[in-house]
Amino acid sequence: MIFKVFYQDTLEETPVRERTNALYMEASTEEEIRKKLAERRYNIEFVTPLSEEALQYEKDNNEDFHVENL
After folding, report:
1. Neighbour order of strands in the sheet with 67-68
2. Would you indicate the residue range of the signal peptide (predicted)?
């Protein structure tokens, strides 16, 4: 399953919506995503699984779309 992860680059700053980033990862569970990203020291705000329709929308409308491999 592909998940969309919303995060801030650093744990030290207060989250600000305008600086929120997103990445896409393939995993079985949200917990697996969080474990894989723990070493990057991101402030993970939200992890959501993408339906087939949402995934297709992201592929079609997001020129920066790519699935991260860890």
Report:
1. 43-49, 2-8, 21-26, 67-68
2. none
